[in-house]
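User: Sorry, folds how?
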Amino acid sequence: MPSFLQRSTASLRRLAPDTFTLWLLGTVALASVLPCSGQTAVVLGKVTTVAIGLLFFLHGAKLSREAMLSGLTNWRLHLLVLASTFVMFPLLGLALKPLAGSVIDANLYIGILFLCTLPSTVQSSIAFTSMARGNVAAAVCSASASNFVGIFVTPLLVSTLIVRGSAHGPGSTLDAVWSIVEQLLLPFLAGQFLRPWIGKWVDRHKPMLKIVDQGSILLVVYTAFSESVNEGLWHKLSPGSLVTLGVVCALLLAVALALATWTSRRLGFSREDEITIVFCGSKKSLASGVPMAKVLFAPGALGMVILPVMLFHQIQLMVCAVLAARWARQAEARALEADAVQRGLPL
């Protein structure tokens, strides 16, 4: 049995920021000190658009149709995850509206609403579900479906929840949907179409493709924060506002986790399905959120919009890592107990 010190050290490691989060922080710091502007910003903007298209093309090429279809029969689970992602979260975001302008900065509240409209993560949802001994096939299907549905639903929710025609929101619902389809969905579908020919190559080069994946997000973050810094982001945003934002994101995640757990148990799902529902239904995708924000929002508003997404991303990783480890320990204890019973050993 591991000692108390070993368990404590392992818990602290799970709470530590991952490497990509450190890169994100470094990118924000770079944009704060050396923001791009003028012709450099124009060129980087065009490069970013191409990088986002490549990012979603690779997402399409990486997604295995067989793995996705294997979990389709569990339709009750998938409906609950989609309802949690695209109904529960937006309602929670609206419930925070009385705090906007007083407790929460009004511009940051726009970012919180945007966060609530985003689809679930794919890689981390599947990884945590697997670690916790949940229903991995259902997690693959549910998280993938959430991202696909989000391409259409997120811009619709943004247009509904955020005042149209403002400096923050898209001009019209149809324009927003078409922008997402043109810049994100079409590359994704192209990747899916070419998967029979390039799928094996993509699967063999996942570490290299991860660099493209994360590099695209870092590029969007740098250009977004550069624009916002040039417009006085850090003069408008106080340290107190950042602390408050962190508390709100943590509270939002806690409520989502509690509701997902309670609902799955009330509806009689198995332990494995409950784990899948909790992880897929409570997480929000940074990988999809940052590119979508670039398409949907004015450049000057991007920094404030993606800041809640970045903060929520790190909080959800830390909390879900602890939850997954706890569920894994419980599964191991149950397995040992069942083995002891089967062999007639004392418990």
About this structure: Confidence is low (pLDDT under 50) at residues 164-168. The CA atoms of residues 37 and 227 lie 7 Å apart. The first helix runs from residue 4 to 15.
